[in-house]
């Protein structure tokens, strides 16, 4: 079996090289046979990588501890779900997952476009196959998941494996890595179309129309992956946070930011035929940031708490990225004449301008996070000094940027395309603006003094009202025309233009998340060593320890505290924070006790036992509004799903005609 | 994962909020150590293997950062300055423990990036903003005799059409 696995990925590697070469040669030499064989090679890659992945998963599930990977990342006592997740629990397996996802995407692309885009599909296949080749190089020659344990030249098995890190044995964490990978890998598809479009000198938006859904789906996966990571950090790590600006966390958010900028920027190209170069730059940036993310996660080049992922794999990524970036820059510069803008801006005060600023802020965020991630490495290389950038550093930088971003989220959609009149601005901004001002004044009167929190709440209300008014105005109009009730009319409105109103819902999700982030300004916490009957106070909660137990299962030893919770004298029930120590991996984890409410969470963490081993160290936190982050995340996901639903009414954009050199070559391409 | 508060006004503690598009604002472990301990701890690299600072090491019951924080607190209580405390750690663990302060360069570059972005937008707007329509500019003055010839030709053609 193990030989079959190794053989499968080796054959897949050969097939990937063949697919890339055959597609390009077939196109250049006008040999349809070669082009078709290149596409079929893509299907064969999928079959081979699926076979290899299946063998690895089977080995994990059946506990075949002759495999070094299985012995290192699973054990007999792990539940079946987590045995399956061990596929991506270690470096070799996760890189195999990368390859499998990419081969799946490539096969779907080849199949769904088998009768479309015949002029540039060979190059799409070539780009996908090239990226696939790189990952198969890693799978075969650098991080092979089919290495066997051997002693005296004989394959041997260990009695039991080390097991998956207990921190990773959590439902959200079971799907967090594949979600992120679905996002990382998925951006390869629009990138491949963009590059193919450049190579074939396509002047129009063909690649954007074709990949719009791909990009949205990919962005959805990426968003979900980031959200799950935050939820996991909050519920499992026990440090009471959901984001710590760790380099690996940053790596997941970098392509998300660039991808978000791209999703906005393509509207300019679709509607006005502008920003063609910029869109190619953005999707290329997003793709390379995905590679960078994998590189940062896997190389250990930057300080990270994700210590499980360190290796010398970085040099392969650096080489591939350097070649890829150089080739992309060359192509863009060489094809500049084909990417000329088709129209002009009529006014600075317009939707077009708001997209420019939106892109600036998203890219500024992306650059700031990237800079913060790499600055310690750059600084040490240049000056020899090690430095540490903690969350304070990021927050000072990102809070103002984030506030400006939420402001633009509200303002941007209210600007009209082409030109916005002063009257229109007044009409759209007046009531949301006044309401926000009233809220800020009311909060100040109520004693809130945090400057950024006040601004954030004001902007959140502003954006929420602008979004709601868009639904209300549109819904009211349809209701009056068709005699529907308002709610039904708003559903109809959304169905008529899912892209626009789904987008508004995504914005609403972002607003809700910002409300949750803003709540952090009012966090409270307390730490105390407690014994049975002892009490502590955090915020307006009184906590009494009613029981302190300890025990041991076959898998882990545990300490558990039962805490009676009171608020203003009223009994709210019990929370049971627990500390576990896994015997196989010798790692500790926290099972936090959380009382979740819309206004605030009470969060209890069993940090450990006191030095004399008689009392429990309990960390108690009150996190105002934190639940809105998760609610906002769900709204964001729901809004993205709506964007993916075809609109009832097909939107036709009035477009300017393709002129000049672009027109000439457009004709030639036909 | 790291600390997340942002020093704000004289009212108080720190603040923080928001984030980037995804929303991410850093949160943190609650502050068991005081701000003074945290300030000094940020200059020292934890030696537990996490490569984080003493202040930001997240390992529960870390064998290095926990006693290090206690030692910092004791030395502060005894009146030692930040520099003296850091020097004491360097004496014990070598230069490798020292984290330098991020230079102003680290701060400037992201803002310089935003400034460059604004310049790009300005250049974009300048290049692609539609010029005002000719009627708003009044009648066209033509000084070039070569162009004058064409103008006469056009007028003659127009007359024929009429």
- Classify the fold: give the CATH topology of the largest domain in chain B: Helicase, Ruva Protein, domain 3
Instruction: Please state roughly what percent of the residues of chain B sit in beta strands, choosing from under 5%, 5-15%, 15-25%, 25-35%, 35-45% or over 45%.
Output: under 5%
Shape of chain A: globular
Which sheet architecture does the biggest sheet of chain A show?
6 strands, antiparallel
Termini gap of chain A = 50 Å
The average pLDDT value of chain B, as a whole number, equals 69
Tally of individual helices of chain A: 20
Strand sequence of the main sheet of chain B, in spatial order?
A: 1-2
**Net shape of chain B:** rod-shaped
What is the second-level CATH architecture of the largest domain in chain B? Orthogonal Bundle
User: What is the radius of gyration of chain A computed over CA atoms, rounded to a whole number of angstroms?
Assistant: 27 Å
Are there runs of chain B of 5+ residues with pLDDT below 50, and where? 1-32
Strand/helix succession of chain B:
EEHHHHH
Q: Please provide the count of β strands of chain B.
A: 2
Helix content class of chain A? 55-70%
Q: Name the average pLDDT of chain A.
A: 87
> Total helix count of chain B?
5
The total strand number of chain A stands at: 12
Key attributes of the depicted protein:
heterodimer, A: 670 residues, alpha+beta, Four Helix Bundle (Hemerythrin (Met), subunit A), Tick-borne Encephalitis virus Glycoprotein, domain 1, 3 domains, six-stranded antiparallel beta sheet, four-stranded antiparallel beta sheet, 20 helices, B: 162 residues, mainly alpha, Helicase, Ruva Protein, domain 3, 2 domains, two-stranded antiparallel ribbon, 5 helices, 2 strands, 46% helix, rod-shaped, disordered N terminus
């Amino acid at each position: 079996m193990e030989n079959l696995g190794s053989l499968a990925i080796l054959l897949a590697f050969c097939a990937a090289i063949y697919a890339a070469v055959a597609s390009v040669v077939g196109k250049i030499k006008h040999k349809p046979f070669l082009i078709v064989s290149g596409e079929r090679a893509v299907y064969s890659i999928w079959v081979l990588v699926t076979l290899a992945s299946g063998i690895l998963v089977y080995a994990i599930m059946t506990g075949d501890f002759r495999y070094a990977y299985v012995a290192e990342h699973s054990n007999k006592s792990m539940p079946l779900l987590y045995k399956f997740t061990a596929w991506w629990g270690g470096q070799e397996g996760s890189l195999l997952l990368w390859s499998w996802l990419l081969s799946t995407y490539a096969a779907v692309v080849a199949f769904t476009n088998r009768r479309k885009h015949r002029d540039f599909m060979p190059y799409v296949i070539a780009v996908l196959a090239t990226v696939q080749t790189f990952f198969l190089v890693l799978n075969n020659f650098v991080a092979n998941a089919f290495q066997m344990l051997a002693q005296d030249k004989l394959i041997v098995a260990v009695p039991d494996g080390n097991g998956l890190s207990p921190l990773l044995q959590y439902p959200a964490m079971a799907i967090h890595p594949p979600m992120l990978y679905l996002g990382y890998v998925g951006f390869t598809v629009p990138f491949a179309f963009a590059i193919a479009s450049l190579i074939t000198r396509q002047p129009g938006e063909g690649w954007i129309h074709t990949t719009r859904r791909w990009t949205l789906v990919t962005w959805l996966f990426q968003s979900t992956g980031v959200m799950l990571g935050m939820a996991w950090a909050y519920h499992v790590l026990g440090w009471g946070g959901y984001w710590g600006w760790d380099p690996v966390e940053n790596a997941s958010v970098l392509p998300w930011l660039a991808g978000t900028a791209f999703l906005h920027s393509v509207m300019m190209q679709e509607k006005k035929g502008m920003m063609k170069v910029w869109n190619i730059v953005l999707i290329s940036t997003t793709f390379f940031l995905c590679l960078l993310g994998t590189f940062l996660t896997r190389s250990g080049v930057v300080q990270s708490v994700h210590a499980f992922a360190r290796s010398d794999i970085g040099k392969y990524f650096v080489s591939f990225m350097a070649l890829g970036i150089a080739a992309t820059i060359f192509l863009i510069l060489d094809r500049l004449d084909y990417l000329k803008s088709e129209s002009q801006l009529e006014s600075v005060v317009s939707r077009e301008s708001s997209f420019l600023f939106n892109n600036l802020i998203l890219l500024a965020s992306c650059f700031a996070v990237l800079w913060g991630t790499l600055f310690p490495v750059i600084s040490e290389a240049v000056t020899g000094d090690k430095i540490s950038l903690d969350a304070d550093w990021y927050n000072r930088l990102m809070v103002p940027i984030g506030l400006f971003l939420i402001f633009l989220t509200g303002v941007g959609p209210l600007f009209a395309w082409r030109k916005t009149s002063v009257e229109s601005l007044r009409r759209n901004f007046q009531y949301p603006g006044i309401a926000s001002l009233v809220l800020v004044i009311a909060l100040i009167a109520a004693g809130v003094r945090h400057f950024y929190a006040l601004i954030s709440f004001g902007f959140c209300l502003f954006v929420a009202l602008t979004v709601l008014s868009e639904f209300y105005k549109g819904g009211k109009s349809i209701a009056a025309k068709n005699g529907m009730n308002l709610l039904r009319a708003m559903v109809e409105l959304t169905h008529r233009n899912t892209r626009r109103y789904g987008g508004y819902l995504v914005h609403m999700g972002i607003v809700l998340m910002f409300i949750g982030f803003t709540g952090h300004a009012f966090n409270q916490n307390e730490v105390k060593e407690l014994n049975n009957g002892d009490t502590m106070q955090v915020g307006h909660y009184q906590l009494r320890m009613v029981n302190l137990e300890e025990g041991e299962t076959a898998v882990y030893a545990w300490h558990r505290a039962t805490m009676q919770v009171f608020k203003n004298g009223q009994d709210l029930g019990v929370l049971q924070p627990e500390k576990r120590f896994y015997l196989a991996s010798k790692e500790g984890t926290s099972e936090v006790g959380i009382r979740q409410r819309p206004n605030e969470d009470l969060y209890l963490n069993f940090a450990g036992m006191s030095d004399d081993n008689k009392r429990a160290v309990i960390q108690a936190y009150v996190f105002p509004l934190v639940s809105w982050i998760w609610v906002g995340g769900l709204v964001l996901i729901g809004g993205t799903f709506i964007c993916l639903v075809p609109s009832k009414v097909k939107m036709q954009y009035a477009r300017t005609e393709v002129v000049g050199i672009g027109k000439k070559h457009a004709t030639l391409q036909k | 994962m790291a600390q997340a508060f942002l020093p704000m006004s004289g009212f108080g503690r720190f603040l923080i909020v928001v984030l980037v598009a995804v929303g991410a604002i850093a949160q943190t472990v609650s502050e068991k150590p005081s701000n003074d301990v945290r300030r000094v701890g940020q200059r020292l690299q934890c030696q537990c293997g996490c490569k984080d600072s003493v202040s930001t090491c997240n390992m529960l019951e870390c064998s290095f950062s926990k006693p290090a924080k206690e030692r910092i607190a004791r030395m502060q209580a005894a009146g030692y300055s930040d520099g003296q405390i850091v020097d004491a750690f360097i004496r014990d663990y070598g230069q490798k423990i020292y984290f330098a302060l991020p230079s102003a360069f680290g701060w400037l570059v992201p803002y310089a990036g935003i400034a460059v972005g604004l310049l790009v937008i300005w250049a974009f707007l300048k290049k692609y903003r539609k010029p005002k329509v000719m009627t708003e500019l009044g009648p066209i003055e033509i000084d070039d005799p070569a162009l004058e010839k064409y103008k006469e030709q056009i007028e003659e053609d127009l007359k024929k059409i009429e």
